Amino acid sequence: MKICVVGEGAISNKHLEGLANIKEAEVVALVGGVAADTEATAKKHKIPFYTGTDLARYLAYKYEGVAIRNSQGVPKAWISKRIGGHQIDYADESRQVRTMFADALAAKGMKPKMEAAYEAEKATLPPLTN
Hints:
Elements: E1 2-6, H1 10-19, E2 26-31, H2 35-44, E3 49-50, H3 95-106, H4 115-122
Parallel strand pairs: 1-2, 2-3
């Protein structure tokens, strides 16, 4: 499974350390906000593509990141699809993604413990519309 990680900070580094232990996971891209930190994180974890000050790198990314914003200037990538944004909330994640996650954990003798969190999140989200 090829993965793009968003963020170059402490939490992303923890995720990258964990992903390094999953044989089927391959982090192929890193999208960060601070160019120098993103580059350092990418080099530390041997990630081949990452955002930085070189504008040519941005041509490799299909998704808009924070470029497309709503009328208040908030990136649509940060807004739930339930209210017109582009973010997929955990509660709306496809069954296929959850199955892949569970299978990767099972290969390491682990089980996911996210179902309660997914269900709890639903109560905090706007109604799902089509």
